[in-house]
Amino acid sequence: METYTSGPLNHYRRPKFNNELATRIVGGHCVLASIIGICFNVFMFFHFLSLEKLSFYILCTSKTVSNTLSLLVYLTYIGPANLFYTSIGSMTFNARLQQIFGFGLFLQGPMTELLVTVNRFVIIIFSPTKIPTYSAKITVFALAATWCFAIWLSWLPGFPDYCFVQFAFDHVGYYESDCSQEVVLWLIFIIFPLALFNNAMNFILGAKLIVLAKRQRHMTSSEAAKRRRNQTIKFFIQSVIQDWMTALVAGSNMLLTTFYCKLHTCIILTTFTIDSLVYCFDGSP
Fold first, then answer.
1. So what CATH class is 14-282?
2. pLDDT tens digits, 202-237
3. What is the share, in percent, of the chain residues with pLDDT greater than 70?
C-alpha cells in the first residue's frame, strides 16, 4: 500500500468491500456512456470546425475538447476501476488524474460558459450591425487564458503531493488531508461566483430580448435583420441551456444523495452515473 510521507494527513479511508454489484454496474455504465459521448463530441468538434469562425462556435469547439478529455478519463480509468472492482495505478497517479479531471477540466466548462455568456451579452445589448473581425481573436485569447488557468489548477506546481485530491473509490481506499480539502474549497469559491455572474447576465439578456421582441413586432425588418435576430435568440437559448445544465446536474446529485443515498458509496456512484451522461451531450449546437 502506497503512503504519503511528505505532509500531514487527516486520515486514510480504508477500502470497504461492499456494494460490488452496484459498483460494477456503474463502471459498465461509465464505459458505455463515455464511448457514446466521445463519438458524439468528436463529431461535433469537426462540425463546429466546418462552420463560420464565429466566437460562439469557437467556444463550442473548445467545449467539445474538454468534454472529450473528461470522457477519456471515464473510459480509461473511472469506468474500468469500478467495472473490474480494482485499483489502477498508484495513489499518486490517482490523485494527479483526479486533479486534472475533477478540477482543471471540470472548471474549464463553467469558464467557457462565462465567455459564451459575455459574448451573447455584447451581441444582444449593443446589437452591432456587423461583428468586428477582431472579435474572434479576442475570444481565442480569452479562451487560451482559461485553459492556462485550468492547466495550472490541474498540476498545482509547487504544491506537495498531499494537497492533491484523490478519486474517492470506496473499494480502493483513499487519503484525505487538510490541504486537499482546502483545494476543494477553492473550487467551490470559484464555481459559485461564476454561476451567479452567468445567471445575472442571462437574466438581463432575457429581459432585453423580450423588450426587443415587443419593439420589433411593430416594425418592418429586412430578411437579414430577421435572420440575425433569430440567430441571436437561438444562441441565447443554447447558452442558457448549457449554463443551467451544470446547475441541474449538481441539484439532481444533491437531491439523490440527500434523500436517497445513506452510504458514501451510493453518493459516489450516483455522481459518476449522472455526470458521465452530461459530458456526452454538452456542447451540442
1. mainly alpha
2. 788 777 777 776 676 656 556 666 666 666 666 667
3. 68
> Which residue from 93, 96, 117 is spatially nearest to 105, judged by alpha carbons?
96
- For the chain, domain boundaries: 14-282
10 Å Cβ neighbour count for 265? Answer: 20
Q: What distances in angstroms separate CA 39 from CA 66, 83, 279, one per listed residue?
A: 14, 21, 11
Residue 174: DSSP 8-state: E
Question: By C-alpha distance, which of 283, 268, 238, 229 is closest to 30?
Answer: 268
Identify whether the C-beta of residue 168 lies closer than 8 Å to the C-beta of residue 95: no
The secondary element (H helix, E strand) that includes residue 278 is helix 264-281
CB atoms within 10 A of CB 157: 6
Q: What tens digit of pLDDT does each residue of 72-109 get?
A: 999 999 999 989 999 999 988 999 999 999 899 989 98
Per-residue cell: 236: 441565447
